[in-house]
Amino acid sequence: MTGEPHHAAFGNFRILEMTNTKTIFILLNAAFRRLRRRVSTTRRNVEGSLSRDGSEKGIPSRKLPKRCFTKLRMPLPHVLGLISMLAVVLAPSFGWACACGCGVFDVGTSSMLPEGAGGMAFLEYDYQDQNHNWHGTSSAPDANNDDKEIRTHFVTAGLQYMFDRSWGVQAEVPYDFRYFKKSDGAGNIVSRSWSQLGDIRVEGIYTGFFEDMSAGVTLGFKLPTGSHTFDSGVVDRDTQIGTGSTDITLGGFYRGNLTKDNKLDWFAQLHLDIPVLIQGDYRPGIELDTAAGLYYKGWHLHTVQITPVAQVIASERTSDEGSNANPPNSGYQRILLSPGVEIDMHPVSVYADIEVPVFQDVRGNQVVAPWLLKVVMSYHF
User: Fold this and answer.
1) 3-class secondary structure, 356
2) Which of 171, 167, 189, 170 is nearest to 180 (CA)?
3) Which sign does the torsion angle of CA 229, 274, 277, 216 carry?
4) Would the pTM count as exceeding 0.70?
């Protein structure tokens, strides 16, 4: 970048449009220092309400329920703006694009956020059926696209383990089932069905910013364990189950209370995926997925807690690159609304949501899904 940098103001923050690593960490550090000061002020006020002899005028933090998070004085719009600022700073200024839905399933599951030391094993099922042609921001004739349908069942086994309230690790092993239908060069309809191991992901987790684990970051890798060569005469690289790339992944989340009774909470997440090593002259696009939502914890049926969730998810990805890529027809921006519910029967919980696109802006002609589904069953130990 040459000349004077451009700035954009948000509240008391000032965003510098620079993407070098040093600047990113300076901004992150300053933001978390600000949040720390606000949490410290709130805690001093709470501790001041406790009498010297130990009698309670308030509720000691050690007696707070597990899912009760510290109440910040920072207004909710400012916190959500901070999350958006981080997304802008971390995302490169490329044209966004994507081929097959990508990592939109990596965000938007509030029940998967760490809450304390211990482990969680989970099995996740995701589904999407891309069966309608789309161009730009509107529907387009099916005849304009050789691809007719990409239907995928994603099954992922995972393990999350927090060694203490600060450090943990998570691993995910996907196995995907895909059906692909297209028109060949002669105008004949051909199809393929196959199932394979997908790309394994391993990430480290840090949640030591605050005592209540209300904020956290992740850093890890996506490994090229999925095949990217299945029937390459019919199946394009951007439709393969594996990308063939080794990626760096970076994520973050924040959550807090909205009401004094601690029944209505909010959360925000982001997840960034950057390919760094590639195979076969195909580089998948850089992908950014974000989510923000509310969940209500006031419903119980005997010992079962029922938590409705409402969230908005935004997904963007840069164009694929390389001689085996199709940049003019490989991308989109989209926003989805996602109602869901979590049923907690400790130590077992089940989460499910449906994700409905309300805005899509794709590059070229691409088949899109009218809705997406996610179901997660987890066991806490």
Assistant:
1) strand
2) 189
3) negative
4) yes
Give the Cα separation of 43 and 41 in Å (integer).
5
Q: Which residues is 357 bridged to in the sheet? A: 336
| CA atoms within 13 A of residue 307's CA, in its CB half-sphere | 26
Task: Confirm whether 64 is domain-assigned.
Answer: no
| Of 218, 336, 228, 311, residue with least CA distance to 273 | 218
Separation between Cα atoms, residue 357 and residue 336, nearest integer Å: 4
Mean pLDDT score across all residues of the chain: 81
Q: Domain for residue 55, yes or no?
A: no
Position 60 in a domain: no
Residue 41: per-residue pLDDT: 52
State the sign of the Cα–Cα–Cα–Cα dihedral 363, 367, 370, 372: negative
Closest to 50 in 3D by CA, of 62, 38, 32: 62
- On whether the CB atoms of residues 121 and 375 are closer than 8 A, the answer is no
CATH of the domain at 285: 2.40.160.40
68-102 b/e (C-beta count within 10 Å ≥ 16 → b)? bbbbbebeeeebebbbbbbbebbbeeeebbbbbbb
Q: Provide the pLDDT for residue 97.
A: 30
Domain of residue 287, residue span: 83-380
Structure tokens at 273: 């995926």
**Number of helices (H) and strands (E), helices first, in the chain?**
2, 18
The pLDDT value recorded for residue 167 is 98
Q: What is the pLDDT of residue 186?
A: 86
What Rg do the C-alpha atoms of the chain give, in angstroms?
22
Residue written as tokens 């609304």? 337
Residues of the chain with pLDDT under 70: 1-103
In this structure, what are the phi and psi dihedrals at residue 213, rounded to the nearest 5 degrees? Answer: 60, 30
Q: Give 292-335 as a DSSP string.
A: EEEEE--EEETTEEEEEEEEEEEEEEBPPBSTT--GGGSEEEEE
Number of domains in the chain: 1
User: Domain for residue 167, yes or no?
Assistant: yes
CA distance 62 to 209: 18
Record the tokens describing residue 242, joined without a space. Answer: 């594996």
Residues 6+ apart with CB under 8 A from 212: 64, 68, 69, 70
